[in-house]
Structure prediction request, 569 residues.
Amino acid sequence: MADSVLVTTHDLPLAGELRDGFRHEGYRVELLTPGESVHDVADPVLLVLTGGVGSEAASRQAAEAAAAEVPAFAVLSPDAPPDRSSAFSATFAAPADAEEIVLVGIRAIQRRRLRRATGIVGETDAMLEVMERVVQIAPVDATVLVTGESGTGKELVARGVHALSRRRLGPFIPVNVAALSETLLESELFGHEKGAFTGAIDMRKGLFELANGGTIFLDEIGEMPLRTQTRLLRVLEQQEFHRVGGQKLIRVNVRIIAATNQRLREQVPLGAFRKDLYYRLSVLTIALPALRDRPEDIPLLVDAFVRDASERHDRGPFPGISPEAMRILVRHRWPGNVRELRNLVESMVVLTPGREIRADDIPADVRSGDSRMALVPVGRGVTREEGGTAASLRPQLGFIFRTMMQMRVDIEDLRREFERFREEEEEGDERALLPPPSRISKEIPAQEVAGRREPGRDRRAPEPEPSREAGVREDPAEEGKAAPQNGPEEDGEAAEAGDGFSAPGEATAREGTVAYRPGMTLEDMEREVIRTVLDSVGWNRRKAARLLGIGERTLYRKVRKFELRQPAG
Prediction:
């Protein structure tokens, strides 16, 4: 039978629109006249007051809804007092949009159902966001990863996702991965065939088979061995597996919800958790806040835990908690989160029957605000030996080293990308600066640039010997002499070697030669050589780069550096 939504008839046109909207979403709608009572309908899930807020009938109906813990919405007229809204879960100003009321109402109904199914308590923004996330995620079948510190209620959230999903009629099977050894874990999850190992006296179905059509909850997934992670990945991707020791392929239809109090993303670089499994599990994520991050919810949690403990232990009506005791509970850090608070409240209910809980009834460590347990960073597999040793820090150091190496790789990749980008930009600028390759086939004698060495070349490497056939004019007195080797005297003997440079003071009007003049620097000479070569090949940059023995990009940079321009005409 569908849930009942109650809509008052103070505003008949709006009531008719709301009735059609809620019915379209699958809810049964009951129209209440001012004289009818909320209690006339069995287990309503929402009350919408369409008008008349402030009247005696509307006030009575709202009070009845509050007593039944039914969310109440109100459509306020423009002249309604501002404080009217404090009595309702949501208020809308007239004229109201019926579609908006239906949408907000359905979310309120689902949150109420979630609280009833799981016992999740909280009114802070962080918890409302968690419940809203559960409501959004529940209808789909994607894998969910629930994260949060130990004791924050991850299993309650998993049960809530299952309760609101289309699989709610199927089984919900929780598994504590950390409580089982590797061999036993595989047998529990996937089952085993008879004789698969010592003690396997019969065939046994695994939890995945038993959860077929429902949901399996894998708590503490970060403790799963790597071998089992590999098998789990196949189940996630193919929805099939083999029993331990079996050959028959078994197909299942199971939704997996995993939970962890570890940072799995940090476990991946350490090799403790498979990267592909991590990304496959974290399709949808729900992050639960620690209790210390939502202290406003502590009074609500205490009230809920007091009622629950009083009923279970048959303690009757509970007198309550003094304001001073409540202040102590609110300011405590709660390293054990909601689980620690629940256990403390239960112990106080049992140990203080029939009277109010006072500040001195609270344990001393809670009164003193001692929360050192929450501040001790204990890494996985880390042991603190007496006196402290380097070995006890190896897991942390290993993680730091891998992280730094990964950062170095990322920086190197970024640097290479930047260099490539800069070269492309410079090439584009210099292509715009240089004219298209000329078709002039004019060549430059190789001897005119023989005296120039490429950067980085060994200074002792011999230079090519000048050739007479190249058409270079040599001093007759130097004919027959071997070309001098590069060495300390190279600069001083450049003119005698016929390398195309003239001695100081020598007039050089020859075309295609570079003249040295007193006061010229190596940079000036390099500029003259590059300009001479470019002129000799008609500014064909490819030929010029080949003759100079440098790359085209290097030539572009030097042309830009020396501000060389092709002569007009």
Q: What stands out?
A: The longest strand covers residues 44-49.
